[in-house]
Automatic annotation (TrEMBL), chain A:
A Pfam family per the record: Peptidase_M1
Protein's name in the database: Peptidase M1 membrane alanine aminopeptidase domain-containing protein
Listed transmembrane segments: 20-41, 61-85, 111-135, 155-173, 180-197, 249-266, 329-349, 361-383, 414-438, 458-475, 487-508, 528-551, 572-593
Annotated source species: Hymenobacter roseosalivarius DSM 11622
Keywords tagged on the record: Membrane, Transmembrane, Transmembrane helix
Automatic annotation (TrEMBL), chain B:
Bilayer-crossing regions: none
Protein name per UniProt: ABC transporter related
CDD domains in the cross-refs: ABC_drug_resistance_like
Domain named ABC transporter: residues: 3-233
UniProt-listed PANTHER family: ABC TRANSPORTER, ATP-BINDING PROTEIN (PTHR43335)
Gene3D superfamilies, sorted: P-loop containing nucleotide triphosphate hydrolases (3.40.50.300)
Single annotated GO MF: ATP hydrolysis activity
Pfam families: ABC_tran
Similarity annotation: Belongs to the ABC transporter superfamily.
UniProt key word Membrane: no
Length: 1206, 297
């Protein structure tokens, strides 16, 4: 019986065109994905290089997983939902159920038959991916050797179990509810839940649970491969082990359990509700009704006319609206959404797993972001339901013959669906308020909620509502309509990848809005609204079009609809459509004038091409000798409310070369309007401009007389940065209404800057540019003449006058010498008393100021009122930093430290001489529980790090070669860690270091080019910050903090404020090695000069109680060390290394249990198995190797084991 | 008042010709449109009910051009389509009230009274608070006529209203229809002959998109007087008989096959003359038309 049904199912499905259509869709999508990833379309978009082959097992695994999800889940639901359901829908079931088939045979046969066919359908992915790799035109270097298992493995480990699970879900839904809608909604809910869940499980400590809970297993396989290097990705199959195996077993079990449940509940009955126990609701009595005497119908009065139509419209709107929000599917999706809002609320603003205060802007943005997928799903789904409502209920003939004007039905549906996102936004608002209340945060900004949720986001939903309705009317096929909407969503996601970046071309899009506590919505609102008005025009056209094409009556053929539309296209319709079209065109024209005429519109591809052109044209000039800047005097006039700035002043340029210089190259940002740019003093014979390329911002001036070696001459400039109209993407975030932050990059540069060249290897190849190392090698003596932040100056004298609007404070590095008002503006004069790097900033906002002192040094924090939360921590960070650094590194060169807040359009803090611009997002609103050992006090840490830069960057600056950021970033990181350790103790550092280790390991896994050892770091953040933290922390633990500081102090003394050639990392290593004992020299080599990885684990531990109350702990350990090359190929390294061996006990500290070492000693271990015995005084709880993860180890969880409780 | 259909033709986009040059004049009172399944009845009804376009021809209701002035037609129309559904979770009273609003019954008091009267009239008053999902086929059909009667329509179209009803329900439905005023036009399309003979003073027989006959049922039956003959035969004899005689119908009765035959004079001694029923007229006309077509073909 089973076999027959199974065979019939195969036969039936193989004859269905849908099977082949699904296969074809997957094949095409897979092909497209392969082509896009492989760079087939790079002529259209910006290319991104990578050394991971597109057909590597890792890549194939990823692509297959993605496509199994979208559109896979929808197809799987389309396959499994109807497996049994179709018998009910075709009313075949009475015929079937009266035959002697068994439940097992019927359900089992159908399920397995469908399973086999679905796997066949899904094999389209592998076929498409494979064909993709064969297409000529795919860059050969992206394609590795073909391996059958690479294609098959994801099917065995991921796809098959997923199909069983999802198949079981949809099969059971369809079979038990006997409703197609249930399977359909099920698939949407599944997808939305899945995506939202993906975003939520980012907490480092939850990842194990998170990856087990992920029903598709992709979280687990990501967890398994997250530290994989390029080499591993290219060669290894994702193994079915560990978490992935666990995950697969769990979910396969769930799938089978569901099938079991389905089998148990299923009965061969006529209708779904009929069960053995439940009785059917009785029909209202029918035959008791006698035929009555005739009733005379009262005469009634019918009203026709606009007022009645409006009443009808209002009534229908209300009805449709209530129908939606009362429907169980709506409630189900909203409840699911609420569950995720709850999770999202817990994650607000997490940095280092440490939360921020739930300020309204964050809560509103994060919650509405988490909820938006649910909103999209609801809008898309109900657009289809509304358009088809009458027809689905078979009431359409009655409705269509009613004396309603044509516009009423569509307009009421549109209005009802427009109301739905209003409800959804109210839900988000209430959740936001609840989140704040439960966090004990009561500064509700209701106005901000309303502005953001109802002023901004709602407009997007409304545009979407109109589009969805119009699509459904136009397509006139419910499922095809949904498919078209899905295509639209995919289009908006991928438009930029096919080179379509102009917001005039992507329905509903806008130049972007960012909120900042300083600048509020600032200058983003105007352009945003213009674009929305433009799209509203189109939406009106769409709505009128939909009304014209609205199906009324029983004929749906295209020409009948067209004919009807023509007859409906009368006065009001023409007027509305004309108004819409006019708005669309006029506003579109106005926008175009702003984005493309007033502003220069460049797609990212154009920008890339310009960079290439710049290199081609001018790199040959790079070797000509150029003078260097020695003094800067600048007046910065800021016009925040106009977003404009005027920069004028004078450089002194000095010929530091040994030969005369006859011409000077000047390099300026393209947008600068040059009012004056002249070499030579006023009144002297001016230099002659011999090259002027305003498009690329490159100018060459020939001097009337060559500049002799050692001589200087002034460069006078007057530049204006205007802000005409608005841009396609609102990028002008530096000069803003409140919170201006600009830096020296807006001022002229001298000479050709090779750092501006394209560095990506693949892209260079595409443009036939000669290969270029990402950074110059350590031995490049020419490159050592420059620091890594400037190619045209060494140390400069600096003074600046900054003017701004009268209610703002303006700042620049230096000491305030004078402040005055003039012409209704406020002026500030800053002068620096010692030479600085040619690197400075100007800031202006309506600041409040917190002042403090450390010895004679003034500390000031310029902040946004309301952001007082962590000022004390920051002040403390400055004070503790100054204490530690002056004591251990050397004196501070300034008399002042200022922290200046700027809007969160960027998230960083940056150290300029005695001035630290500090993003509002990186600590001002952090909510730190000092007692919680899991919280990282990052305002304190970031502050300490930035203060440390006053030594490590502003005193010691590396040459423009590999390894240079080690001296600034790694050492600042080390300095901050030491300050933090002093305040919080060693135990509290572990969480932070765990993060740093994780970010190093994930960083190297996504390296696009080459991983470098620390001393050759090429400005790679995951190396100079993350690995730097880990390596330096370990070093000070092995060698001693004092020793390390002693080395650093000696180093700083040797090289601070040095002139070219600049210092390089071997200098630093030399000092570190001097303080390192011979037995640990290998450690310096391993951590700084090599890429070293350990695989430490404890195999077994036990203990015995000894007479005398002591305990003997026996450990069986395994230790391995590997050296990796730049792509991650590893080779085992011999070892005789010192590694921490520890026995731990749990102690209660501040009310929380914490691991404390009973015994901890560095012990020499050889590679392989090691057996150790340790005597301890108390009863031990855990024991292991390198328990605090000082050494780089991808699997730190197996380093420590609990002792058996014997 | 009369509905005048002239030269109405309709071909669907899939090539099916549903109406061929239909000419009909429908006076006030109950008008029966009789025809087998697929004859084009529903196409004609839907065209009159503004749900469908015609390729050519015209329909006029006095001064009203039905094909163009759809809004005008809809204001006086009551329409019960052949197949319709309901919102299962809404009560009869609520849905009827809803339709009343959409039919322009603005005054809520008046609307309430009409809805109550209609529910009484259709014997649904007792169950007005029940969800429509629980209604039987007959109740649903009565609800259908109730909504069609909303707003004192002057043109009522009921398409196959009795199909699938049990005899009691059908009877009840006939009573309902018969109470609709005499001075409005009611078009009843059906394939059940007795629906027409019971209710209609005027009728048309339609098959394959063509009108085969129009007239008063009594008159058309009279026209066949003396031409219809009946005989009982064994089942095996039927094919042979069909060759010899114009057999218009055959049905089983008590194990025997009773055939009706049309003939000007007595076809034989085994035959007895019968008074023609409307059914005989119907079958005779359809058989005639089929033969005519066969000859033409």
């Amino acid at each position: 019986m089973f076999l027959q049904i199974f065979k019939f199912e195969l036969w039936y499905r193989l004859r269905r065109p849908a099977t082949y259509i699904y296969f074809g869709i997957l094949l095409l999508l897979a092909l497209l994905l392969m082509l896009t990833s492989g760079g087939f379309f790079k002529g259209l978009s910006v290319s991104v290089g990578s050394k991971v082959f597109v057909n590597s097992p890792f890549s194939l695994n990823g692509y297959t997983t993605v496509l199994t999800l979208i559109p896979g889940v929808l197809l799987i639901s389309a396959m499994f939902g109807p497996a049994i359901l179709r018998d009910f829908e075709t009313r075949m079931h009475p015929l079937l159920f009266t035959t002697p088939i068994s439940r097992l045979g019927y359900l089992g046969g159908r399920f397995t038959g469908t399973l086999v066919i679905t796997m066949l359908v899904l094999s389209g992915i592998a076929v498409g991916l494979f064909i993709g790799t064969l297409i000529p035109g795919m860059p050969a270097e992206r394609i590795g050797p073909q391996r059958l298992m690479g294609y098959l493995n994801p099917y065995l480990t991921l796809v098959l179990p997923n199909v069983v699970l999802m198949g079981a879900i949809f099969f059971a839904l369809g079979t038990l509810t006997r409703k197609a809608l249930a399977t359909y909604v099920g698939s949407i809910v599944f997808l939305v839940l899945y995506f939202v869940a993906q975003g939520q499980l980012s907490d480092l400590d939850n990842q194990t649970i998170g990856s087990l809970l992920d029903p598709m297993g992709s979280g687990a396989s990501r967890q398994l491969t997250k530290y994989w290097t390029t080499a591993e990705k290219n060669t290894q199959l994702v193994p079915l082990t560990g978490l992935l195996l666990g995950n697969r077993l769990v979910w396969l079990g769930v799938g089978l359990a569901l099938l079991g449940f389905c089998f148990w509940r299923f009965r061969f009955t006529q209708s779904a509700a009929e069960g053995p126990v439940r009785r059917r609701a009785e029909r209202p009595g029918l035959d008791v009704v006698p035929t009555t005497a005739s009733v005379v119908l009262p005469r009634v009065h019918q009203q026709f006319g606009t007022s009645q139509y409006l009443r009808q419209w209002a009534r229908l709107t209300k009805l449709e609206f209530l129908d939606i929000i009362r429907s169980p599917y709506f409630i189900a999706i909203v409840v699911a959404g609420l569950a995720f809002l709850l999770v999202a609320a817990l994650q607000i603003g997490k940095i280092f797993d440490t939360r921020t205060f739930p300020v309204t802007a964050q809560v509103a943005i994060i919650l509405s972001g988490s909820f938006s997928l649910f909103s999209l799903a609801i809008i898309t789904f109900y657009a289809g339901e509304l358009v088809w409502r009458e027809r689905d209920a078979h009431l359409n003939q009655i409705y269509d013959a009613l004396p309603l004007p044509n516009w009423v039905p569509l307009a009421s549906k549109l209005a009802a669906l427009l109301l739905v996102p209003v409800v959804l936004q109210v839900i988000v608002l209430v959740c936001g308020l609840l989140t704040q209340i439960f966090s004990g945060y009561y500064q509700f900004e209701l106005g901000l909620y309303i502005k953001y949720l109802f002023g901004l986001r709602l407009l997007d939903y409304w545009l979407l509502v109109v589009l969805a309705i119009a699509v459904h009317v136009l397509v006139n096929h419910k499922y095809l309509g949904h498919f078209v909407m899905l295509l639209y969503y995919m289009f908006t996601l991928f438009a930029s990848q096919i080179g379509l970046e102009h917001n005039l071309a992507i329905y509903g899009s806008d130049p972007g809005v960012q909120y900042s506590a300083l600048n509020k919505f600032g200058h983003f609102i105007g352009p945003f609204l213009w674009f929305k008005l433009y799209w509203a025009g189109l939406a009106l056209v769409l709505a009128v079009g939909a009304n014209l094409l609205w199906v009324r009556g029983t004929e749906t053929s295209a020409n009948v609809r067209q004919k009807l539309a023509a007859s409906r296209f009368t006065g009001p319709a023409r007027l509305a459509m004309g108004a819409g079209l006019l708005t669309f065109l006029v506003v579109g024209g106005f926008i175009y004038y702003n984005t493309n005429v007033l502003n220069r519109y460049q797609g990212s591809k154009t920008q890339e091409k310009q960079t290439v052109e710049f290199e081609r044209k001018y790199s040959r000039l790079g070797r000509r000798p150029q003078p260097r800047i020695t003094a800067v005097e600048v007046q910065a006039d800021l016009f925040p409310s106009r977003q404009e700035v005027r920069l004028r002043g004078q450089y002194w340029l000095r010929n530091k070369t040994g030969q005369p210089i006859d011409s000077v190259q000047l390099n300026l940002p393209q947008e600068a309007r040059i009012r004056l740019l002249t070499l030579g003093a006023a009144g002297a014979a001016p230099a002659r401009t011999v090259l002027s390329d305003s498009l690329l911002g490159f100018y060459v001036q020939r001097l009337p007389q060559p500049l002799a070696p050692g001589d200087s001459l002034p460069l006078r400039f007057d530049l204006y940065y205007a802000a005409p109209g608005f841009e396609n993407v609102t990028n002008r975030t530096s000069v803003v209404y409140n919170g201006t932050f600009i830096n020296s990059q807006l001022l002229p540069n001298i000479g050709y800057n090779p750092n501006a060249e394209i560095s990506d290897e693949e892209t260079r190849k595409d443009y036939n540019l000669p290969p270029k190392p990402r950074m110059a090698s350590l031995t490049d003596t020419a490159a050592r003449r420059n620091t890594y932040i400037s190619h045209d100056s060494d140390w400069v004298r600096f003074a600046a006058t900054v003017s701004t609007e009268p209610d703002q404070l303006a700042l620049a590095p230096g000491y305030l010498k004078k402040e005055w008002a003039e012409n209704g503006r406020r002026y500030f004069r800053y002068e620096m008393d010692a030479p600085i790097l040619n690197f400075y900033s100007f800031q202006s906002a309506r600041y409040a100021v917190r002042k403090a002192k450390w010895n004679d040094i003034d500390i000031a924090i310029y902040y946004q009122p309301g952001h007082e939360y962590n000022l004390d921590r920051m002040v403390r960070g400055v004070q503790d930093g100054l204490t530690y650094f002056t004591k251990n590194f050397g004196p501070y060169q300034h008399r002042q430290v200022r922290i200046v807040e700027f809007p969160g359009y960027q998230t960083f803090a940056q150290s300029f001489p005695n001035t630290i611009p500090y993003s509002e997002n990186i600590g001002f609103i952090a909510k730190i529980d000092s007692a919680d050992p899991e919280d990282v006090d990052y305002p304190y840490y970031v502050t300490a790090h930035e203060v440390a830069h006053q030594w490590w960057a502003h005193q010691v600056i590396g040459a423009n070669v590999q390894g240079s950021t080690m001296m600034s970033e790694t050492l600042s990181q080390y300095a901050a860690l030491m300050v933090m350790k002093q305040l919080y103790g060693e135990a509290r550092m572990r969480k932070f270091l765990k993060h740093e280790m994780d970010r190093y390991l994930t960083g190297r896994a996504t390296e696009q080019s080459k991983e470098q050892p620390l001393y050759k770091v090429e400005n790679q953040q995951y190396i100079h910050y993350r690995k730097g933290s880990v390596a330096m922390y370990a070093l000070q633990d092995y060698v001693g903090e004092d020793k390390v500081n002693q080395a650093l102090a000696a180093y700083i003394k040797e090289v601070k404020f040095q002139q070219p050639p600049y210092t390089t990392s071997p200098d630093l290593l030399r000092h570190l090695r001097q303080v390192t004992p011979d037995s640990l020299q290998y450690l310096v080599t391993d951590m700084f000069e090599r890429i070293t990885l350990y695989e430490n684990r404890v195999d077994s531990v036990s203990y015995k109680k000894l007479p005398g109350g002591k305990y003997r702990v026996t450990l069986n350990l395994n230790s391995k060390k590997f050296y990796a090359d730049s792509l991650g190929n590893e080779r085992p390294a011999p070892m005789n290394d010192w590694i921490d061996i520890a026995v731990l006990i749990e102690r209660k500290v501040n009310g929380k249990w914490r691991d404390e070492p009973l015994y901890r000693r560095k012990t020499r271990l050889k590679a392989g198995n090691n057996k150790l015995e340790i005597i301890v005084a108390e009863k031990p709880v855990k024991a292991g190797i390198d328990p605090f993860n000082e050494l780089i180890d991808r699997d730190p969880d197996d380093n420590v084991k609990n002792l058996p409780r014997s | 008042m009369a509905l005048v259909i002239e030269n109405l033709s309709k071909t669907y986009s899939n090539g099916v010709q549903a109406l061929r040059d239909v000419n009909l004049t429908i006076p006030t009172g109950m008008f029966g449109l009789l025809g087998p399944n697929g004859a084009g009845k529903s196409s004609l009804m839907r065209t009159i009910a503004t749900l469908q376009e015609a390729n050519s021809g015209s329909i006029r209701l006095d001064e009203l051009d039905v094909l163009r002035e759809k809004d005008g037609v809809r204001r006086i129309l009551g329409y019960l389509p052949q197949e319709f559904g309901v919102y299962p979770k809404v009560t009869a009273e609520d849905l009827l009230d809803h339709f009343a609003v959409l039919k322009g019954l603005a005054d809520s008091k008046e609307r309430k009274a009409t809805v109550a009267a209609l529910l009484h009239k259709t014997n649904l008053y007792e169950v007005r608070k029940k969800n429509l999902g629980g209604y039987s086929g007959g109740m649903k059909q009565r609800f259908g006529i109730a909504q069609a009667l909303l707003g004192n329509p002057r043109l009522i179209i009921v398409d196959e209203p009795t199909a699938g009803l049990d005899p009691a329900e059908r009877n009840r439905f006939h009573n309902l229809l018969s109470e609709i005023g005499e001075n409005i036009i009611v078009i009843l399309s059906t394939h059940i002959v007795s629906d027409v003979s019971d209710l209609c003073r005027n009728m048309a027989i339609i098959n394959k998109g063509q009108v085969l006959l129009t007239g008063d049922p009594l008159v058309v039956m009279n026209e066949l007087q003396g031409q219809v003959w009946r005989r009982a035969i064994a089942k095996e004899q039927l094919p042979a008989l069909q060759q010899e005689q114009q057999v218009i119908s055959s049905r089983l009765y008590a194990g025997q096959t009773i055939v009706h035959v049309v003939s000007d004079g007595s076809p034989g001694v085994e035959y007895e003359s019968v008074t023609p029923s409307l059914e005989d007229v119907y079958f005779a006309r359809i058989a005639e038309a089929e033969r005519g077509m066969a000859v033409v073909a």
